[in-house]
């Protein structure tokens, strides 16, 4: 009887842990996507600023 109770409780804990980790993965994935988007936007802003500076200096190659 004790063994059955132990196995039941262990199974319940595994299912609960799996359920909670599945919920947090979705939030982590969304946060990761937002971070990726922010990094890409920052990179684009730096490239645009570089191109503006090169245009102002009348550089031959305006690409950065």
Q: How would you summarize this macromolecular structure in one to three sentences?
A:
This protein has about 60 residues and is mainly α.
What does this protein structure show overall?
There is one protein chain. This protein has about 60 residues and is mainly alpha-helical. It has one helix at about 1-55. The longest helix has about 55 residues, at about 1-55. The termini are far apart. About 0% of the residues are buried.
Strand content: under 5%
**SSE order, one letter for each helix or strand:** H
Number of strands: 0
User: Quick one: overall form?
Assistant: rod-shaped
Number of helices: 1
Biggest sheet, open or closed, and with what strands and sense? none
Mean pLDDT: 78
What level of helicity do the residues show?
over 70%
Distance between the termini: 72 Å
Rounded to an integer, what's the Rg over CA atoms? 26 Å
Structural class of the secondary structure composition?
mainly alpha
Q: Point out poorly predicted stretches.
A: none
Assembly annotation: single chain
Protein name: YtxH domain-containing protein
Keywords: Signal
Organism: Shewanella ulleungensis
Signal peptide: 1-22
Search tags:
64 residues; 86% helix
Structural topology:
Blueprint: H1 2-56
């Amino acid at each position: 009887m004790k063994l059955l109770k132990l196995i039941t409780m262990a199974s319940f804990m595994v299912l609960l842990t799996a359920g909670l980790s599945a919920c947090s993965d979705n939030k982590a994935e969304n946060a990761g996507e937002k971070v990726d988007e922010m990094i890409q936007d920052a990179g684009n802003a730096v490239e645009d600023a570089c191109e503006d500076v090169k245009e102002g200096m009348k550089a031959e190659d305006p690409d950065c």
